[in-house]
Amino acid sequence: MAEWELICHHTYSGIPGVVVDRSPTGSSYGRAINLADGDFLPDGASPGSGAVRFDNAADGAVHVSAEASAWRSLPGLKGEATVRRLPGGVNFILDSNSFRFFIRSDGLSGWFNSYPLQYAAITSTLDPLGSQPYTVPVNSWVTLGFMHDGFRTLELSADGEVVARLTRAYEPINPIDSAGIRIGNTLSGGGSLLGEIDEVKIWRLNPRRMYDEFHARPMNAEAANCWKIFEESLQAALRRHPDCVERVAIELRNAVRGGLQTILANGPAVTERLRSSAEIYEKLWRTGKIGTSDMAECLAGLIQWLRAAGMDAEQNPAFNALVNSECFGIIVSEINPLECDPQFIHMMESTGRRLSTGDAGSAL
Hints:
Layout: E1 4-10, E2 18-19, E3 30-33, E4 40-41, E5 51-54, E6 61-64, E7 77-85, E8 91-95, E9 99-104, E10 107-113, E11 119-123, E12 142-148, E13 153-158, E14 161-167, E15 181-183, E16 195-205, H1 209-214, H2 221-240, H3 242-265, H4 268-286, H5 293-308, H6 317-323, H7 326-333, H8 342-357
Antiparallel strand pairs: 1-16, 2-3, 3-6, 4-5, 5-16, 6-15, 7-12, 7-16, 8-9, 8-15, 9-10, 10-11, 12-13, 13-14
Helix pairs in contact: 3-6, 4-5, 5-8
């Protein structure tokens, strides 16, 4: 399954002024604002690729509305634009009330809005990945990119190479509001890109990726039906208690955020251990080996190692607030148990036994 979902793709080729969305849904088309037909060029980074030209005098832009449902949920976001810019000023490539992508003082910048929880920003001059800060070339075509993975990493890139990175606990980006997105200018105007854009692509982190990954495990008909009944009972419980849905979502987000902050605060060794264990777990899960001793060793070993490093989930206040909350208890009490999936039950029980006896192995 795809980790990222393409939700907007403009090439600016074809009929001048007609901006077609080439993403799978085709619903993020553009509308030209203060742009003449002559501003749509037949050639861009390559002959026939098309491009659109922006300048301060016209104060033009391409507007994308927020009508497409994909813009209402942005668990993570990345984008890229193939640009040839002229020197001078603040040059906006993309702007919205949820994220911004622009050139300032020759450096590349990304800004992300998760208000009221936080704002996040990254620049190639202040947050370089290498020893030398990246500056955007003048009068040359370059594909510039940004990425917010929804929980721990911000990146900027140029021609596919990461030039800036920040790592900490981040909140998901706010949905695009009714103001939509402007390409080549700010929402309010006055921040026009000085130059041309050949192509724009924007992806969101696939909101179904965890569901798809979970169901990528090989299952027989009995186990598949077991999970179907479980999911139906969960959805029914959530419908019966709508007030609890938001509360549990907030508590779950706080628990995940608290755990992530703790992991990141303990440095790259802990992050790498978690990544390696996740790769082993995913491989075993995808190949249907969830009830094996290898899976129990992977899970128990990781939990024991995290505990030894001072990261016991049971000692996390946000985790305890979640599992001890009234709403969580109500939802759990009304869903069907998973006793009909023996492999899953065996995985949980064998992991628990290893933890209780201290026989967790190396996890890796």
